[in-house]
Amino acid sequence: MKTHIKILTGVIAAATALCMTSCSEENSFFQVEAPSAANEANVYSNYTLSEYAIFSISETFGHTNNYRGRFLPWYGFNTDIEWYNGTNTTGRELTQYAPTVNNTQMNLDNGPYNEMFVGIERANLAIEGLRAYGDVENREEMAYLLGEALTLRAMIYYDLIKAWGDVPARFEPITSDNIYVAKSSRDVIYKQILADLEEAIPYLYWPNQSTQTATTDRINRAFASGLYARIALAASGYALRPDDGLVGTGNIGSVRLSSDPELSKDVLYPKALQYLKDVINSGSASLTASYRDLWYNFNNMDITAGGEVLYVIPFSDGRGRWNYTFAGSHEKSPYIGTASSRGGDAGPLPTVYFMYEPEDVRRDISCINFDWVEDTQEPAGIDMWYFGKYRFEWMDAQPFGGGNDDGIKPIVMRYSDILLMAAEIANDQGDIKTAKDYLLQVRRRAYAGNEAMAETYVAGLGSKDDVFNAIVDERALEFVGEFLRKGDLIRWNLLSSKMEQAKRDLTALANRQAPYQWLGNGDIWYTYSDDGMSLTFWGLNPTEAGLEPAGSQWIKEEGYISTDKFDSELIDNLYRNNPDTRQFWPIFDITLTNSQGALKNDYGY
Predict the structure, then answer these.
(1) Are 412 and 313 in contact (CB under 8 A)?
(2) Spatial distance between the Cα atoms of 141 and 209, rounded to a whole number of angstroms
(3) CB of 382 within 8 A of CB of 558?
(4) What is the DSSP track for 59-93?
(5) DSSP state, 565?
(6) Tens digits of per-residue pLDDT, 31-80?
(7) DSSP one-letter string for 398-413
(8) Three-class SS string for 173-194?
(9) Continuous segment of H or E residues that includes residue 255
(10) For a tag site, which of 171, 258, 402, 463 has the least CB within 10 Å?
(11) What's the rounded mean pLDDT across residues 306-311?
């Protein structure tokens, strides 16, 4: 008998409950199967009930300790561009490449590892039911639902692999015979979910092509195509892997490429590039003209499809802890309701601000350096930066009410990622001109008003290596605070080297050594912006070195940049082990115990 884990909600759950409490062999009426009975044939031949089954998959994202409260707040740190602020927050070992199997944030029976498999089980049930009863060959709307289920399952599995490496391959509903299963090689899973996406993509509607895809909280063809490319890049790239045939045996493994020829670049890249070009040529998505408007609209929960955002985590308006965790720090400000403090848990590395040229409009959106204290702002300090993409003060449409959930719907993929993935693959395939064209589209938006600078920069990239290195840098500048960087660095085999460089750069900044020697005595000035929503700084651009600003509005902040802002613990704890040996979390104790011996940790845990 199948184990239906929280399978359906709404009408299906109500119908099941009615049957369980009302059906009796003593009453002949109830011996006849009622049309509303929630069996598979009735559910998956009916569009509305099938849609509820699909909703039940993404409903798991909002479970307390799944994407909402554990996976999204903790996965993706630390990198060469993002870190958790401070040193002593509970669970910080997860970000410092020093996780333990009994970590208090993750060693939970309802933690993200287990909850993601709940989502996969719901997807398996929906996929099996739709294939059997949905008549997907003749009913376009049922085919869409099958494509949606396949894509959601692929996304969840990709996230599992990102965090844990090799995990069990479950592509059929649970039965008494397969409750406890061992890990499979991630290559098995990669090949399955890539094949699933190849099937799903033709079933799906483009953004705004249908009522289902009028908003970005439903799966569309552009996102599924981009997800194929994202997974293909990971599957064909570097990662810490157990030796072949030794998955789930405790093998330490090594950082290497897959030895499966089906996952080579030669096989996957042409398909991935074609899917990306399909999105680009479809006209179903485009860059938002203003980088500021993109993030202002995000904070106001604009999920209208057809723009830059392709898919968001579909938290309800009262669910999710995104700004709660990642917005700038607020202490008793009017923007956080009754809460005493919110935001500020993480941010860009202090060196990231200086990676941008002053003309890059992304800089002052991505990196902010002020705290909200009651109804005003004050400098946060050189060691404490925040993601300006996420701001309580920009939540006009639905102001934050002060609880633990803010309703913000995290972006899973944007159109700029489509362009930069296409640039990377085209460049790898030797089509440097096309790669530069895609890169330039992203760069021009970043230099709005100074587009000639973007054009000169891209035109000056001469070789394949030049273009690749430019893409590595561009992805950092474009996606800081969106937590794609860790996966990027792993697949490029740059994780350890970039992290080592980040420590050196932080130390140089703390001591105002090259390339930061122009910061002089570390004093800066600040003033309040005209809109009252931020601070403007003087002294953080090389052209301002040694000069005092004109005007009485400027306030001097002495010793803003000084060695004592960066104690050795702060910099050292960017990582405590070689990041390449801790690319993945361990399977945590409770899950290991409950597996009845089927699961075992690899990677030296």
Answers:
(1) yes
(2) 12
(3) no
(4) HGGGSTTSIIIIIHHHTT-S-SSEEESSS--TTGG
(5) G
(6) 334 444 458 899 999 999 999 999 999 999 999 999 999 999 999 999 99
(7) S---SSS------EEE
(8) CCCCCCCCCCCCCHHHHHHHHH
(9) strand 254-256
(10) 463
(11) 98
Q: For residue 423, give the amino acid letter.
A: A
Strands 330-331 and 341-342 come out as antiparallel
Q: Is the pLDDT of residue 105 over 50?
A: yes
| pLDDT for 424 beyond 50 | yes
Confirm if 91 and 104 have CB atoms less than 8 A apart: yes
SS3 content of the chain, % helix, strand, coil (to 5): 45, 10, 45
Whole-number average pLDDT of the chain: 92
pLDDT band for position 199 (50/70/90)? very high
| Token reading at 518 | 């122009």
Distance CA 16, CA 8 (A): 10
And the tokens for 16?
Answer: 């099941």
Phi, psi of 348 (to 5 degrees): -70, 150
Give CA 242 to chain center in angstroms.
Answer: 25
Q: Which residue has the tokens 């096309």?
A: 434
Residue 498 DSSP SS3: helix
Helices (H), ranges, 429-547: 432-446, 451-459, 464-479, 485-492, 495-510
Q: What is the pLDDT of residue 8?
A: 39
**3 against 82, higher pLDDT:** 82
For the entire predicted model, the pTM comes to 0.93
Residue 118 near residue 9, CB atoms below 8 Å: no
Rounded Cα gap, residues 81 and 387, in angstroms: 11
Amino acid in the structure at residue 339? A
Closest by CA to 206, choosing from 280, 150, 155, 156, is 280
- Write the single-letter amino acid at 247: V
